[in-house]
Amino acid sequence: MTESPVPPPPPMHHDSPIYRRIADRLRDQILSGALDDGDRLPGENALMAEYGIARATARQALAVLINEGLAVPRRGSGVYVRLFRPIRRHGSRRLSREQWGRGRAIWDSDTPGRAYAVDEVDLRREPASTPVSRALRCDDVWVRHRRYSVDGRPVQVATSYFPADIVEGSAITLPDPGPGGVYARLDDLGYPPVHFTEEVRARMPQPRETASLDLPAGTPVIVISRIAFAAGGVPVELNEMALDSASYVLQYDFDA
Amino acid sequence: MTESPVPPPPPMHHDSPIYRRIADRLRDQILSGALDDGDRLPGENALMAEYGIARATARQALAVLINEGLAVPRRGSGVYVRLFRPIRRHGSRRLSREQWGRGRAIWDSDTPGRAYAVDEVDLRREPASTPVSRALRCDDVWVRHRRYSVDGRPVQVATSYFPADIVEGSAITLPDPGPGGVYARLDDLGYPPVHFTEEVRARMPQPRETASLDLPAGTPVIVISRIAFAAGGVPVELNEMALDSASYVLQYDFDA
């Protein structure tokens, strides 16, 4: 174990709980650069000895920094300053026709040089729920649910809905939709997407999202709801995504 | 007090803590529509009586739903299903030249018909920090820090940085920058913004964000970092925003 980088504690004011004050001090060190990306934070034992506190209190202090996204626990090893190497998800470029029109996977644009995988695919046809039916203006839908992992870590779950009338019998209803993915297949069917609307929210995860994405406590999800429109404003896909917020930066470019 | 809408508890499995299972049941009722927007959830006393649990456990169950953004506490009154009436922030339309070029405030586009206020403004000139200097390619900056409230509730804090060489002596350095705001003034100075890049992240708030935005526990913030570019790719503003995630939907539109 490396030496604790925390200097001997000066007297602290008693207007906030001790775990908060310890977290404040560690945060200052991270934000000032005294503790750098990938550095190990003092462990529970070190904090207990240094501040004369109980293990639960030490754990609370570290949890504050984990919840703020400034640190990550590694199982059986300790808590580290987060080496934030996010996926840069470029809202418009990734969905350009040049991308899927040439048979490229959209994810190649998000994760150049990194290993990504679709490690869960679930397909079904079902009657559309009220919100889905309202978005897609149809009664029955094909549903594609996937989970994506990057560098072996799950980062996103996504559920896409397609009007069954349009996609029935196409490769969109198969686990592998083929080169260029579902947008290239919509193009084959005469419904190439020409416009996208993305709605972005953030919130704490629901239990099934925590489980699917293996999220540490206190990590929010970014929720994106996208509708793809073909010519004439015909909606051809609704995609509901939940992203591990610690893994993503979304980038949007536009002109004044 | 209204009658509790929770039916008598059927036997529950013991694979998760009781507060989780109570939260699961309440969530099901919210997501199924049995409990509607604005309905009051059963209070701590009702949950204690119904499930034979301690107050802390009842509180934990309600906290789960609050953290997921499905419910909100109202001081001294109880916990209510969230009436989600978010601010729809339209990424590109709000920043179009038509907006600020006609002397309109950008916020008029975000909050039609709602009362919004800039209730804190702080101005200073200072040497640029390393990341700010890198983004704006200059040594000294004017800093505009503001807090925005909608319907009396703080929803966003924003800190904008401008190259001091460009904006010195202009109304951008005054509390009220005048009609059309800072972009109209940059236009007056010969640097109208023509392009914007927004980076969007989500994370748990830092303590000063929790304080400024009066965030309930477990509410993440959406963090947006935007650079405005004038012709020739000259960066003229860096704006770092933190948004109450419960108050916002960000919308982005783009073509394939």
Automatic annotation (TrEMBL), chains A, B:
| Keyword field | DNA-binding, Transcription, Transcription regulation
Question: In this protein, which residues make up the domain named HTH gntR-type?
Answer: 16-84
Q: According to the lineage, what is the superkingdom?
A: Bacteria
The UniProt entry, under Gene3D superfamilies, shows: Chorismate lyase-like, Winged helix-like DNA-binding domain superfamily/Winged helix DNA-binding domain
One GO biological process term is: negative regulation of DNA-templated transcription
Name a Pfam family for this protein. Answer: UTRA
InterPro entries in alphabetical order: Bact_HTH_transcr_reg, Chorismate_lyase_/UTRA_dom_sf, Tscrpt_reg_HTH_GntR, UTRA, WH-like_DNA-bd_sf, WH_DNA-bd_sf
Query: What GO molecular-function term can you cite, just one?
Result: DNA binding
Q: Which PANTHER family match?
A: GNTR-FAMILY TRANSCRIPTIONAL REGULATOR, MANNOSYL-D-GLYCERATE TRANSPORT/METABOLISM SYSTEM REPRESSOR MNGR-RELATED
- Give the protein's recorded name: GntR family transcriptional regulator
